[in-house]
């Protein structure tokens, strides 16, 4: 009689969930990879806390020139509140600091290949001043990479 491999036995007995170690499932909760998998194609997302935690502030497949006004995908208290961001679109997202200034002030860019920035506290807007991106994003739009400075990439 052929011996059944142990992992197949486990699968047959306990189902797929039973063979996923609990530690692995927990670890997934502290990255943005699960959020990226669940995200809709063509959209960018912004989250309240780092590593895509704390709730989705907003998501968009278009632009929003003021995350603090009462129009578009980001409104009111959404401005100056994002701590991590995700890009599942087809081009780059450009995020701006200028609060209520319609795509003004310093900026940072997130490419579709980078996919997400888990903690933007150690990223700084262009224009100097060492302004951390956390809790400072106030608008966004989709751009081609040539509109982003070499030092403006979110990682
Ligand atoms: Ca808005
Ligand atoms: Ca701002």
From TrEMBL:
Signal peptide per UniProt: 1-27
Superkingdom classification of source: Bacteria
Keyword terms of this UniProt record: Signal
The name this protein goes by in its record: Peptidase inhibitor family I36 protein
Native species: Streptomyces mesophilus
């Amino acid at each position: 009689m052929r011996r059944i491999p142990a992992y197949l036995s486990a699968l047959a007995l306990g189902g797929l969930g039973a063979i996923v170690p609990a530690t692995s499932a927990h670890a997934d909760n502290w990255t943005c990879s699960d959020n990226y998998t669940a995200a809709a194609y063509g959209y960018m997302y912004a989250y309240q806390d780092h590593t895509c935690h704390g709730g989705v502030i907003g998501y968009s497949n278009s632009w929003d020139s003021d995350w603090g006004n009462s129009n578009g995908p980001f409104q009111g208290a959404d401005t100056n509140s994002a701590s991590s961001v995700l890009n599942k679109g087809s081009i780059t997202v450009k995020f701006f600091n200028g609060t209520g200034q319609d795509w003004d002030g310093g900026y940072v860019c997130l490419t579709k290949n980078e996919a997400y920035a888990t903690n933007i506290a150690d990223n700084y807007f262009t224009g100097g001043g060492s302004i951390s991106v956390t809790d400072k994003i106030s608008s966004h739009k989709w751009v081609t990479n040539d509109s982003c400075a070499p030092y403006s990439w979110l990682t």
